[in-house]
């Protein structure tokens, strides 16, 4: 079990005993974060970014770590999330393996990684840990919480559970709860990992590692992060021409789309802790803002108090389909928030927010400029 | 390796040496079929049904086998494909495991099942074997070829390779070629089987059987046979209440949609030969009518000579998306065929033709009545 911590990550300690939504308690946990930009003397220019399942806290390059971040095109001086004006905090989610406490972290009670003994985590815990971190940084009120993908879930949870912590919200390809198609996909991803004999009930190591399961999980993910339309144009029926092919066995790969999935999966399998993947994946399935807050999803959304919100979705997104962002927009609006809903016709599916930044940039810039 | 042959199946021998599209030769192969209805004295009322990947030749109940068939609601006396008028022939595809020669059949050269040594099969071979069977039944011209799903591919191949063999055609959720999203899904299904250690390069038996791989392949299939919209309504976020749950391990099943996939997968894994699955799955990926006939897909479709065609697709189908049926309709129409294109707004996705027969019945009945 390994953690993958960005070089410039800083850490905020959670309370010594941090109570979890489902009843357990985490001891001595911490949250990894990075900041870009400068906090204003009035401490009123902080923008929090909550990430999807796999990214770390390195959203953008900055002097302490000049590597491009996972949202480099969107965050930086003069960019849509303009760090000349905003003090941007990006968090690694609780339960992840990129610096925040998760299954790959050492359990202070045993001196060994938690592994499968990491307590049951919920989206509400990810939200609470983020809220605690913001306050630990001396910020009483955020200008804006931005949540992308899974981060769009944890952001809603944070807003519902910590009223007044943010004035504005940008929800990017998020959802107020998981629906059965996405649950089915994630269930199959988890099953691929859990049934890999090398998962060994969560007690793997670098030698005996559930590589095959992680591989399948990632490929299945890629199928839902992009869109059929994009692939029709990008790959069509083009064959693999390179010799030797990566998978040349009986019934082996033959088309470029297969080779593309293979390359992406190879890059991922050893760079994300499998138990952490299982843990965050299940958090998403279990997330239901309406169930968590009581009263149903629409009511829970309408009770969130914000000045303004921007909700963006993508027409070709099959994992977090557009009607889920529409629900967020309508629900927030019903509660009196001034909401702008932007459906994008990007071809890139769920991942469009990472790729089609030419289209995502302008509404985000406009929203933040008006603040 | 096992074959699963319906009790009333009859058999047509292919020529002693049957040449395959990719160069090999099959020796002593046969095709399993069933017929419902009565061939007219002028032999002009035959309707051929070509199936998807998994069905057998038992499309509908008849006196010799009264079990309901896989298209029971559509085929029978007074039904849309009315067996009071039509002599309906349903074939099991060459390469399958339900009576027609395939990897689970005995290789006459060795006296043992072909297994992984079954020669490379193509959609063109499935089509040629079907054409041969029709002629062996003494039918020079079919009134209509109906192809559903993969059968919509083999039907187009048959029409292109055997001009004049049919007057009419009904293409149901078919395609003139495989596109990258479907290729990626099937590639992942094959990978799940191939990487199951019990697949053993295709040399499994009932004891050491790639059950886990077949399981994953089937679940992945179910994800693409239905639609997110259907599941939102059908399952929503309902939990499994039955105790014990089928999969109660760590990160085990919790939602009804997971339990549904589990049940469907369990019913399938031991009832379809894995090598046969691999073989037919690859036939679909490789199928490209334009490449096969030369000149591109639209031209290949326009060269097909028919009197009339009905092309049906489903708006929620993500495996054989609607634009593929639209392409078939446009291509056939450009060649002078009188084409009716019917896009259905069924919620059931690709499988709608098996379920939403209330909607599929009327256009099929109308089309065949007018013949």
UniProtKB/TrEMBL annotation, chains A, B:
Active site feature: 149, 317, 350
AB hydrolase-1 domain: residues covered: 69-329
Gene Ontology CC entries for this record: cytoplasm
Site (Important for acyl-CoA specificity): 186
Top-level class of the enzyme under EC nomenclature: transferase
Subcellular location: Cytoplasm
Record keywords, A-Z: Acyltransferase, Amino-acid biosynthesis, Cysteine biosynthesis, Cytoplasm, Transferase
Keyword Transferase: yes
Pathway assigned in UniProt: Amino-acid biosynthesis; L-cysteine biosynthesis; L-cysteine from L-serine: step 1/2
Residues annotated as binding substrate: 218, 351
GO molecular-function term, one example from the UniProt record: homoserine O-acetyltransferase activity
Region of interest (Important for substrate specificity), ranges: 52-55
Biological processes, Gene Ontology terms: cysteine biosynthetic process from serine; homoserine metabolic process; methionine biosynthetic process
Chief place where the protein resides: cytoplasm
Function description: Transfers a succinyl group from succinyl-CoA to L-serine, forming succinyl-L-serine.
Assembly mode: Homodimer.
Name by which UniProt lists this protein: Serine O-succinyltransferase
Native organism: Streptomyces nitrosporeus
